[in-house]
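Raw record, unedited: Rhomboid family intramembrane serine protease
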Amino acid sequence: MTWRGGPSGSDPQRFGTEAFYASLGRAFVAMCAVVPVLFVIEALDVGLHANLDVAAGIIPRRIQGLDGVIFSPFLHAGWNHLYSNSIPLILLGTFVLAAGTRRFLWSTLVIILVSGLGVWFTGSPNSVVVGASGVIFGYLGILLTRGVVERSWWNFAVVLLVGLLYGWQLLGILPTDERISWQGHLFGLLGGIVAAILFRRRRAELLPPEHPESPTVTMPRPGVDA
């Protein structure tokens, strides 16, 4: 006897399955572990007067500020800045991570590079840019785009929820406040769109298993298998 497909609850990518909720729970715990690391970095920066924002932030169009492309998402301009980023980072990061660790890591790297380089090329050379908001907008872009390219309605539902909770922050992609790097938000969103397309699930992966709960019975042929 051979089985074709698998149990309907075994696909962690399929909304409503037991595996999906288990994956979501693990992703939430992981993101809740990431954010305290950002608080530790901010505490060290403040406590040691290390001035990490300037030392490792993005300084647009200056070579000495290019390394900030990698380091700036881990730095924040004070506690209020970090607090405002923490909850949306956990919320959006959870749903992005739940779709797979490898996709999450590669997608995050693409977002960091696109957002950071976008800021470096287009930002004001008299500014220093830090913060995880570019990554947050990148995760938003991933969920929006996955909803289209993977036909995932629950991704749209997450984006709608975030829009209701943090809709005012979405205006951050527009040049409205000189203290806010709208370039980081805009290029982060674009980076998320690119990552969602690059690391999308293929069509074969999106198709439901054929009769997942029905076994395919192989019968012996008389005179051959018997």
